[in-house]
């Protein structure tokens, strides 16, 4: 038997109703904050993630689904070749000849390296640059969709998982750098979690510095790591030299006492950076969003600057980060774009659903009516009635004239329909149908024209 690949899973009804319920609530909240949806491709050039997220991060160095995409390149080359031939049918000329010889020597071609997106911020910033979105001032964008990381699967951790994320970015003149934007994002998140009925979340907040203080901090980290790095796991040793901040992501238990003693970024923030962070906190206090400062929080992706945060939730066990995010003021430049400070977050939708108290059954709508055609020729009549009722937005389940009445009743009760509507020859002739309320047991004969209203009124 072929099964779903390890770390991926099928979402089935009624659980999908819970996902839709969450996504509808989230879209409402995003709407109230004037965010608009962006959909970027599920795969991108590998270079995008290497440059944005960082070569030394776990995500890029260990977890990406990457492949050489030869097919795309071949068909592109062929397309180019035929365009050239079309342009000059008589004599293709040297350019076409060159392309043709490349085509003939297919084996020599190197494919394009592509990667399934492990996160969506890089794709959004790429789109911002590609479509010159700075013309729109401050962009407030959100996305909902699958991401892919080759992690060890466990509860709340999958290889295909879903993120609900948002990014707010624009040229500095659009106010994109303001601490007011950081606070707005964090307040939005508090509102969202509250709206979904998620209680007991904790907002962990840190500032991981601007470009200047990061350089100083990296130096201090390197110095502190020099005498101890040799005792650490090989991965951490390498990071201590190439990208010391990433040492904080080392998970090996024996290394933790060393990591514990390393200098904290909070001691290295320069004045503007410290001020920015203070202002974020002041607004959060003013709007009543509780937070805890965690100066060990550095986040696992390289693009972050200044404000970094995670919301955790006790019910989730080891994978307790329900969402994470932060500022990425230099990301656009590092991808070849203009200055576009920004801040965003991504909620792990799978984890959000795990933390929800709401049961899937409670949000899955129940059928309003089950139509039971009774006897030969009645499927036709039942189909006409179903069409009328569905036009009134009534959730209508359609039976089969070959089912006995007993079986129809059993199905209607199994799917928790509120009413059963019996469609027999006599009913069709009379133009009135037996409608039984399956909750109260009451049965009445209802003229065709009044059916929809009668079923609706019982809602
Ligand atoms: P991240 O912290 O890597 O940040 O992921 C955000 C959230 O996605 C995590 O807090 C977690 O809830 C969920 N998540 C991550 N990996 C998995 C997994 N394997 N299985 C289930 N859930 C997972 C980012 O991705 C950034 N792009 C967030 C961001 C947006 N920062 C700025 N803008």
Segments where pLDDT lies below 50 for 5+ residues? none
Backbone structural class: alpha+beta
How many beta-strand elements?
A: 16
Radius of gyration: 29 Å
Kindly estimate the percentage of residues that lie in beta strands according to DSSP.
15-25%
Instruction: Count every helix, treating DSSP H or I runs of 4 or more residues as helices.
Output: 18
Biggest sheet character: 8 strands, mixed
Order of adjacent strands in the largest pleated sheet: 1-5-6-11-10-9-7-8
Q: Roughly what is the average pLDDT, rounded to an integer? A: 93
First CA to last CA: what distance?
Answer: 44 Å
Shape: globular
Helical coverage, percent range: 40-55%
The hetero compounds bound to this protein are:
histidyl-adenosine monophosphate
Describe the structure.
The chain has 459 residues and is of the alpha+beta class. 41% of the residues lie in helices and 20% in strands. The chain is built from 18 helices and 16 strands. The protein has helices at residues 15-32, 46-53, 58-62, 70-87, 93-104, 121-130, 179-195, 211-225, 234-242, 256-260, 271-287, 331-334, 349-355, 360-363, 378-391, 405-414, 425-430, 451-457; strands at residues 36-37, 43-45, 66-69, 112-116, 139-148, 160-169, 201-207, 292-293, 305-313, 321-327, 342-348, 369-373, 396-398, 419-423, 432-437, 443-447. Strands 1-5-6-11-10-9-7-8 form an eight-stranded mixed sheet, sandwiched between helices. Strands 13-12-14-15-16 form a five-stranded mixed sheet, with helices on both faces. A three-stranded antiparallel sheet has the order 2-4-3. Strand 9 (305-313) and strand 10 form a beta hairpin. The longest helix is centred in the first third of the chain and has 18 residues, at 15-32. The model has no long low-confidence stretch (mean pLDDT 93). The chain binds histidyl-adenosine monophosphate. Histidyl-adenosine monophosphate is lined by residues 119-121, 149, 151, 156-158, 161, 163, 165, 167, 300, 321-326, 344-346, 348, 350-351.
């Amino acid at each position: 038997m072929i099964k779903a690949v390890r770390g991926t899973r099928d979402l089935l009804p009624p659980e999908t109703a819970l996902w839709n319920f969450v996504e509808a609530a989230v879209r409402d909240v995003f709407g109230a904050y004037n965010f608009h949806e962006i959909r970027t491709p599920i795969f991108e050039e590998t270079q995008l993630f290497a440059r944005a997220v960082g070569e030394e991060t776990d995500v890029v160095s260990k977890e990406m689904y990457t492949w050489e995409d030869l097919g795309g390149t071949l068909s592109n080359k062929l397309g180019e070749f035929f365009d050239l031939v079309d342009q000059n049918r008589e004599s293709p000329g040297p350019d076409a000849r060159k392309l043709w010889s490349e085509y003939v020597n297919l084996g020599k071609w190197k494919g394009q390296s592509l990667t399934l997106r492990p996160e969506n911020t890089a794709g959004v910033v790429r789109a911002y640059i590609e479509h010159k979105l700075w013309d729109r001032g401050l962009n407030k964008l959100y996305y909902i969709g699958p991401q892919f990381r080759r992690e060890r699967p466990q509860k709340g951790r999958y290889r295909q998982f879903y993120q609900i994320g948002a990014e707010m970015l624009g040229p500095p003149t659009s106010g994109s750098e303001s601490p007011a934007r950081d606070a707005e994002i964090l307040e939005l998140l508090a509102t969202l979690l509250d709206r979904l009925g998620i209680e007991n979340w904790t907002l962990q907040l840190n500032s991981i510095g601007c470009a200047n203080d990061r350089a100083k901090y990296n130096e201090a980290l390197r110095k502190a790591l020099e005498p101890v790095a040799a005792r650490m796991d090989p991965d951490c040793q390498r990071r201590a030299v190439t990208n010391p901040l990433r040492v904080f992501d080392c998970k090996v238990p024996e290394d933790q006492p060393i990591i514990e003693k390393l200098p904290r970024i909070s001691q290295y923030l320069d004045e503007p950076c410290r001020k920015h962070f203070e202002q974020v906190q002041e607004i959060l206090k003013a709007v009543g969003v509780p937070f805890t400062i965690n100066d060990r929080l550095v986040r696992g992706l390289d693009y972050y600057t200044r404000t970094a945060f995670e919301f955790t939730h006790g019910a989730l066990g080891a994978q307790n980060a329900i969402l994470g995010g932060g500022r990425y003021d230099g990301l656009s430049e590092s991808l070849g774009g203009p200055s576009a400070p920004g801040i965003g977050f991504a909620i792990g939708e799978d984890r959000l659903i795990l933390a929800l108290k709401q049961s899937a059954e409670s949000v899955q709508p129940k059928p309003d009516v089950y139509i039971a055609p009774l006897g030969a020729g009645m499927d036709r009549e039942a189909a006409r009635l179903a069409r009328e009722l569905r036009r009134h937005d009534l959730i209508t389940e359609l039976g089969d004239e070959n089912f006995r009445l007993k079986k129809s009743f059993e199905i209607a009760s199994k799917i928790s329909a509120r009413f059963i509507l019996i469609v027999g020859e006599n009913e069709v002739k009379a133009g009135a149908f037996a409608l039984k309320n399956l909750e109260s047991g009451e049965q009445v004969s209802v003229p065709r024209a009044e059916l929809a209203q009668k079923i609706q009124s019982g809602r």
